[in-house]
């Protein structure tokens, strides 16, 4: 799988290259500025890009802006954004084109290598990977989720992060069938139209919670 | 429509002339009496009595000047600030320090000048207004014509004396003109009087600057104290939090290094522990950084920063930012934390269902309003102390800014913050103003 990496700190950039190479990714470009990122994305059209939010020259949100701009030119281009802090505001901007293939994670999550690589693959496959911290903020704030049972809230949280039914079942030690039932209940309680496709399901939930 | 406007014009004119007359006729005797009292009491200082008497009279003069300041504000909309120096500690009535405080304050002498010059000025304006109005009415109502008929030798305005029918017809229009002029002039006479009062009762440039320096000195001390406390808190948080976790992380890794060949399972457990410690250390650092300077504020300025802040609150908050550029980082940070503190206050105390924040830059200052639909009754300095609003005022005060609280019981509450600052053009390049 072909990857473009954008990270200005050499230490982290090399770490990411090493990590992804070890898991059979091919790093086709590793850049350190927003402009270079945009050029690399449009030139290589990678299967997925791993992007740091803050990049030179302004050290503000160059990476995020470059990723959003590149997705405007190449719709659905999978991008996983990494940051030292997560903001609902940025999550909303990343999700706003509703095309999927979007990830937004704290840099800390890279340390849990297995889960991080899963997230990269999920995003490359057109899925989503939202940081649990974003999801928990959303859940804490949304009044309608008050109607859910604790178990259903747990399932909703994992679903919003982008996990498949099987992954949720594995994490909660229940059967796939039980997860499906929880999800149907959640959709019924929140008044969302039922949907089979994992990605559209996540986007629906996030759009609902963001409203 | 037109009738109502004429009515309002007449009412405003008559009211103003009445007020000018009231001030002009009542105040000169009081002013002269106070002036005489002041001079006598100061002279009596030579024999000691004045040491007690002069300060008392001066306070009386100040109270009377305050009355005129209030009148100027209420009747003419002219704001006159008090120029007096703050009373030093231990300056009780009768002490030499109190006498010295009053005598050494230039504002005391300006008050006396105001008493002296104000008496004839007030009298003049107080006579001109009513006389003009009475003269106008004399013409308008044809009284001049009646007098002429009775005495045979009388005139009005430019018609002098009244001789034929044309002269008679010309009197009422002239009277109407003079009456209208008097009514129009009324509010201006009142305003002129207020301006005169302001020129002597308001702070001079020097006094205004001195007051500003006092205020800045006070807020600077508060800010320095607050900053020192903040640094201590950060140091403690780092010491007990992230630093301690990184130490334990290093220990776990060191032990794992030792064990990796002898007991790989135990080494793996230690490495997992180390990873967990690094995650916790990062989480603590993130929390700390957010409190020092929120990353989203650095990245997106006040607009993005405040909208991101609003998203983290449990209550819906509308954010409306209308800025063409960004203020300097310290001002931006002060504005952000002032709003954050105000919103925290709303969440904690207001029992509100919604709040709004609006920012705009006008005439060299940032204006921020934070409103909510809660219970109201917010005060800047509650008797119990510990108001979040005092903290907001302190933050703003450090940058010569101010906080105004409007919070009637029952709500809604609106905080207005003013923060003098310039905006840099967006995109930080000085050459392009558009960006």
From TrEMBL, chain A:
This is DNA-binding response regulator. PROSITE patterns: HTH_LUXR_2, RESPONSE_REGULATORY. Gene3D superfamilies: 3.40.50.2300. Pfam families: GerE (PF00196), Response_reg (PF00072). Residues 2-122 form the Response regulatory domain. GO terms for molecular function: DNA binding. InterPro entries: CheY-like_superfamily, NreC/VraR/RcsB-like_REC, Sig_transdc_resp-reg_C-effctor, Sig_transdc_resp-reg_receiver, Tscrpt_reg_LuxR_C, WalR-like. Residues 141-211 form the HTH luxR-type domain. Keywords: DNA-binding, Phosphoprotein, Transcription, Transcription regulation. The modification 4-aspartylphosphate is found at residue 52. GO terms for biological process: phosphorelay signal transduction system; regulation of DNA-templated transcription. It comes from Dactylosporangium siamense.
Automatic annotation (TrEMBL), chain B:
GO terms for molecular function: ATP binding; phosphorelay sensor kinase activity; protein dimerization activity. Its EC number is 2.7.13.3. Keywords: ATP-binding, Kinase, Membrane, Nucleotide-binding, Phosphoprotein, Transferase, Transmembrane, Transmembrane helix, Two-component regulatory system. Residues 334-421 form the Histidine kinase/HSP90-like ATPase domain. It holds the Pfam family Sensor. It catalyses: ATP + protein L-histidine = ADP + protein N-phospho-L-histidine. It comes from the Bacteria. One of its GO terms (cellular component) is membrane. The chain crosses the membrane at residues 9-26, 32-61, 112-135, 141-162, 174-194. Residues 26-200 form the Putative sensor domain. The keyword Nucleotide-binding applies. Residues 230-297 form the Signal transduction histidine kinase subgroup 3 dimerisation and phosphoacceptor domain. This is histidine kinase. It comes from Dactylosporangium siamense.
